[in-house]
What we know:
The protein is an alpha+beta fold and 232 residues long. The chain has helices at 3-10, 15-24, 28-31, 34-38, 51-95, 100-115, 149-154, 164-171, 212-231; strands at residues 40-42, 48-50, 119-126, 137-139, 158-160, 180-188, 191-199. The strands form 2 sheets. It has a 5-stranded mixed sheet with strand order 4-3-7-6-5, with helices on both faces. Strands 1-2 form a two-stranded antiparallel sheet. α5 (51-95) runs parallel beside α9 (212-231). The longest helix is centred in the first third of the chain and has 45 residues, at 51-95. The radius of gyration is 31 Å and the shape is elongated. It starts with a helix and ends with a helix.
Amino acid sequence: MSTQQKVRLQEPLTDEAIADFLEADPDFFRRHPSLTRQLRIPHETGEAVSLILYQVQLLRTENRRLKQRLDDLLDVARDNDRLAERMHRLTLELLNPSDLDHTLQSLKDGLRSQFQADLVGIRLVDRTGTQPDHQDFVADGEPALEHVAQILRDGRPVCGQLSRDQLQFLFGDSSESVASAAMVALRHPAATGVLGIGSQDQDRFHASQGTIFLNQLGELAAHALARHLAAA
């Protein structure tokens, strides 16, 4: 062995070098089992435990974490199944009405019964001027449409705390009772507007929740309404 090699071996190993070595050779302790009985790892309680016991504790902790993760995924899957069933029922309800007013009422009733909506607001843009007195229509060019201009442009649902102007536009005099809400764009050549779902629970809708269901709901509602608007 050369003098240079002896000098390198006598130099103290750093923590990083030891960690890199063990990571590169995961079977090291399998070839040297006696070391696992000699090593002691500080425990959170201040006591020292063997490497084997420490590994067992790590595996138990990881197992609990994975079990919790699996439970969470199962909960999400069950929620999605229930949501799909409600969407199916609402779809069937929207197939039956033979005119626009009954379709609007079926949509509102379905959201209240199937999705426990406290309030439902529908505002369709009257581009033809044929619905001047209908409560669910807003004249094209109405200044209040500016409050929902962004969602009409990009089509992305909005959830959580809506502005006071948006709540007033969607729910009228009942807007004071809304603690959280979802606003969904209705985008169809024959049916343009917004659908609002209001809740008295401030935690029901929040900005970080997923919007896949709301997008699907918007498409379903727009197509159901468009059947009658296109024929008008």
